[in-house]
Amino acid sequence: MGKVMITIRAPEGPPSIAAVRERYGLADSDIDERFGVVAVDPADHAYTILVEQSAASRITPGQGWEVDGPFSNPRIEPFGPPR
Amino acid sequence: MATRRVLLELRHSPNMRAAAAARSVDAAEAEITPLASDAGITLDPGFGVVELPRDVAAAAPRDLDAAFDVDGVDDLSTYLVRGEIEETTLEAATMTLRDRPDVIGVYADGPISPMAICPGSPPLGSDADVERLLDVNTLRAKGMDGRNVAVAIVDTGLNIAFLQSRGKPAHFDEARSWVPDPASQTPGDLPVDHGCMCAFDALIGAPECTLLDIAVLQSTAPGSTVMEGLLSDAVRAYAHLLGVATDAAWPYGALVVNNSWGMFHPSWDFPVGHPGNYSDNANHPFNRIVGTLERAGADIFFAAGNCGRECPDGRCQGLTNAGVFGANSHPQVTCVAGVDTSRQRVGYSTSGPGRLMRSKPDVSGFTHFAGSGVFAADGGTSAASPVVAGLVAAVRTRLPYEASKVATHPAAMRWLLMRTADDLGTGGFDFDFGHGVVNGHKLATAVKILSVVKAATRGAPGARREVPTFMSLGPSPVQPAEPRARTAGAP
After folding, report:
1. Chain A positions in Cβ-Cβ contact with residue B288 (cut-off 8 Å)
2. ∠ CA B473-B474-B480, rounded to 5°
3. B56 or B7, greater pLDDT
4. pTM above 0.90?
5. What ipTM score was computed for the predicted complex, to two decimals?
6. Angstroms from A5 CA to nearest CA on chain B
């Protein structure tokens, strides 16, 4: 199963990976640490994480955080000389 | 009343032969005029009568006697005349004509145009032609060469030594570059591939820019292969660009970001209507971070795609009417379609509308020319996009981004680029060419006017703000190459 992106809106600022893991009871393998927590729209306090699709349903809004997703993570390829 | 041009093929008669020899319908008027009149066809006297000599051997391949019967050869010829007929009577007239013994056939006489460039077509022109078409000499004379501008090539990675070997002594900022796996990859020292082509093509317009290597398509994500990545890699890369471009130590006057990649088919994505879909969803994390980077002052360029209706890339799986997907159609980016150096649309260039913003592509750029040497042709909308990005990088030398000045914002640059483009296709915007092919001469002139106005009004409260009138900029002195006929797919 692939990974999906989830956007968390946290007014207090970007959460740490550890805080996300603890809040949703995620295993180390459920969340992509190399991807980390990406500020996709800092002015709107919107931060994106990359998680296993199987873990996505556990990430739900509440306790001051809004949650959007899961979002697709399609492959991308060059629009180079066409084949 | 709409009319249609038609060709009539008629049987041999001595009068028809005489008319063909005289290149005039007069000699066969008694035969042709009543026939045309009955069918409601207005004949085109300028076309005359054209004889179609019949291949005797093909007509009677087993009859050697007939093949050598010289007297019978004339009887096998047929003759074409051309005329116009009203659309509403076309079907009935065709039926009437086909019943006549002197008529062999009725055919549409459709418009013809040069064959579009397709996958496998040889290059048309070279990077020197693109340089001429962008009017790089004028740009340089105005001090527009990319100096003090960073150009991020978000792609398969750069090889600076290769670019130097190809006559592009590029400035390079390794510290602000990005690779997915720093432990195994070194920016600027990656395999020669698609990214090098894009960098070479950006340097045509902006030879003095500084390249940033953002090697998204060197993904190390499980399941990925060479020359592809995942959209999450692009999210990480854009977060990196956002970080360096908003850092207090950022040394450049502007950031230009080129993206010659995308999604070929909707089956790669969640379905349209799914809340997590990418192609049609402005709320997708990548689409959001693209908007954020643009608001931070970056000029962002995306290739339209290679799913044009005439000859799409095989990865389109035959889907040519789906438009431009995802960030490639973002309202805050410039979406670039492809034309060759004769300003003909290349047959694989994806047409709009866009899925996020309908009026896409925005402009067209030059592609399918001999350039970097990475491929036989610098082709695809992949080459068109960095050509346009390089042009904007060049003019950014004289019009750097300033957060407090709206006239320098990316939206203003997009407006200038579209407003100064040479219209192609149908009048005004269309889904094949956008607003037309970019015009370096007019863009440089417009930016020059804008920077002069900006300087004149700086620090002068109440000073009259003048808006340059780009309609008065006049035609470009630069002429395109002559189109040439070619066969689709022929090497």
Report:
1. 7, 40-41, 46
2. 120
3. B7
4. no
5. 0.94
6. 7
